Amino acid sequence: MIRKLAVIGVGLIGGSLARALRKAGAVEQIIGCGRGRENLEKAVELGVIDSYSHDIGEAVRGADMIFLAVPLGAMKEAFAAMKGKLAEDAVITDGGSCKGSVVEDARAVFGGVPARLVPGHPIAGTERNGVEASFAELYENRRVILTPLAETDAQALARVRAMWEACGAEVSTMSVAHHDEVLAATSHLPHMLAFGLVDTLARMKENDEIFRYAAGGFRDFTRIASSNPVMWRDICVANGPALSKMLGAFADEMNELAQIIAAGDGEHLLEVFSRAKAARDRYVDGLQPDQPSE
Amino acid sequence: MIRKLAVIGVGLIGGSLARALRKAGAVEQIIGCGRGRENLEKAVELGVIDSYSHDIGEAVRGADMIFLAVPLGAMKEAFAAMKGKLAEDAVITDGGSCKGSVVEDARAVFGGVPARLVPGHPIAGTERNGVEASFAELYENRRVILTPLAETDAQALARVRAMWEACGAEVSTMSVAHHDEVLAATSHLPHMLAFGLVDTLARMKENDEIFRYAAGGFRDFTRIASSNPVMWRDICVANGPALSKMLGAFADEMNELAQIIAAGDGEHLLEVFSRAKAARDRYVDGLQPDQPSE
After folding, report:
1. CB within 8 Å: B284 and A219
2. Which DSSP helix (H) or strand (E) runs through A123?
3. With contacts defined as CB-CB under 8 Å, which chain A residues touch B104?
């Protein structure tokens, strides 16, 4: 049981955690923290949080669990604001989609990674934002990745794991570096391709006409290009090394494919497309729809 | 009114045209042609066609409208099979998603592009195949592009246009080269990215794990990688010049993006992502779902 949960950033991700823990009877008191008064008052009105503060130091006072659901670019500032204000048994975790930068930010602020910081990432989300988009079932049967370090306290890890399991999520652990590689491949790279494709077409002459002839497959393919640009800027900066490496490798693959196509090598093309279709049909069709990766 | 329609290839595309014209009362008699007896018998049973033949020369006899819905790789053989068997008033059109190769194939077989050949491309489809997947409403409010040449007979063009309008489609015309560029951008390139991404991930070590952490956004993004590999091999070979050029340009863009990310240039990233989001929200959200481009 969590005595007092502080949710820093009460939007879709933070709000859904609060709702899920409340529904599971796994939390006594929830305080929200953020900049926008209107969103926080709405959160109280909806019963997602009990009270709120605009001050992080104030919000974490007496909290035994702190969940950071702020953009990656705001993590460092949030750590700095809670430094020296934490309860002795306070466990900190977060929902950022890159873990290396969060660990680095914590190290810079605290002069070392706190033993009671458990970096985490729920692989869940929708395209909507704000507390009104949050719902208690968001994490049910979704995967949550935790990336404990050598210095992470085993009990803190167990508490964060239990928190996510109370929300119905499936928790696994992996190293920070491995998480960032896996997410670069399955989420960050696809977002770059979608943003890049739409941008390429938007910059072409007669782009109005081009988009007019795009059909439904294009709509699905580019849906993730409608994601929040600020969030994605932060993710790219945070996961720069893994992502730029993967983008470069993908560009090489596309150049290779361009050569195969220019050479009219149908046999080679059939091999690539068949392998891709088999992998896609095998691995991806079992996934549930309407849950864009974060 | 079409007196006798010959549909060469009675699958989703050909079958839906037959159903739509029948529903509109715009055709008297429909003969289907294909290799698979079972599919053709099903088509008769469903009332999509009146009769069938496995022989193209036989099927086009007396037909005043011939619709070729065969893979691009089979167009040349189909033209050769109907050569010398065509009625005097026969108009030929097709549904291939690359027009340059169709025109080339016709020129090679007939020693020149027949005046009564009107190359066409309905921008519609679903992921399903076969006559049982066909339905009369497939082309309603969809775009059909016709690419007449200088030598195309005006009356033949008017008849093909009227045929598609009877199906509820919105018909426009453009040059063969322009069509192939537009489709390379909006359909062929996205398919290459989806096939390429899934193939890249499938070839990574621990690809099982990678796919396991892919969320719903990945599912949407890669849906088109489940398309028919043979059809896409044919399209790539047919539209090789336009597509390989566009792939090369996209690879350059991805390399540029990799450099921006590696340099941590957040301002530049925000500019690209915002421009892409604005274009996507503006142009693409109005499209109807579940209609992958062909």
Report:
1. yes
2. none
3. none
Residue A227 contacts residue A127 (beta carbons within 8 Å): yes
What total of structural domains would you count in chain A? 2
- Cβ-defined contact of B261 to A243 (cutoff 8 Å): yes
pLDDT digits (tens, 9 = 90+) for B57-95: 999 999 999 999 999 999 999 999 999 999 999 999 999
- Domain end position, chosen among B174, B203, B238: B174
Which residues constitute the domain of residue B57?
A: 2-174
Q: Do B95 and B239 fall into the same domain?
A: no
Q: Does any domain span residue A257?
A: yes
Strands B91-94 and B65-68: parallel
Shared domain for A184 and A146, answered yes or no, is no
Contact indicator for B128, B154 with CB cutoff of 8 Å: no
Structure tokens at B238: 């047919």
In angstroms, what separates the C-alpha of A267 from chain B's closest C-alpha? 8
CA distances from residue B175 to A148, A201, B120, B146, B152 in whole angstroms, order as listed: 59, 19, 11, 8, 12
User: ipTM of this predicted complex?
Assistant: 0.84
For residue B249, which of B174, B163, B184, B200 has the smallest C-alpha distance?
B184
Residues B188 and B125 in one domain: no
Residues A48 and A158 in one domain: yes
Asked whether the beta carbons of residue A276 and residue B236 sit closer than 8 angstroms, the reply is no
List helix spans (H) across B127-228: 154-166, 176-183, 189-202, 207-212, 216-222
Which of A174, A205, A221 terminates a domain? The answer is A174
* Residue B97 pLDDT exceeds 90: yes
Residues B110 and B187 in one domain: no
Tokens at residue A266, please? 């149908």
Predicted TM-score of the model (pTM): 0.85
Q: Bridge-partner residues for A6, per DSSP?
A: A31, A66
Say how far apart CA B112 and CA B201 lie, in whole Å: 46
Domain-located, residue A289: no
Better pLDDT: B202 or B162:
B162
Chain A residues close to B222, C-beta within 8 Å: 190, 280, 284
Residues B168 and B214 in one domain: no
Contact B190 A217 (CB under 8 A): yes
Q: Which residues are CB-neighbours of A276 under 8 A, at least 6 positions away?
A: B194, B195, B196, B198, B199, B202, B225, B229
Contact: A145, B213; criterion CB under 8 Å: yes
Check residue A216 and give its pLDDT.
65
Verify that B122 and B87 share a domain, yes or no: yes
Average pLDDT, chain A: 92
Residue A16 C-alpha, separation from nearest chain B C-alpha, in angstroms: 17
Residue A29 has pLDDT above 60, yes or no: yes
Domain membership of residue B291 (yes or no) is: no
Whichever domain contains A152, its CATH number is 3.40.50.720
More confident residue, A226 or A132: A132
Residues sharing a CB contact under 8 Å with residue A171, sequence separation 6 or more, in sequence order: A143, A144, A145, A146, A161, A164, A165
Contact A186 B215 (CB under 8 A): yes
Residues of A in contact with B192 (CB under 8 A): 254, 257
Q: How many CB pairs under 8 A join A and B?
A: 342
* Claim to verify: residue B248 and residue B273 sit in the same structural domain: yes
CATH number at B257 reads: 1.10.3660.10
Q: Distance, in angstroms, between A253 CA and closest chain B CA?
A: 7
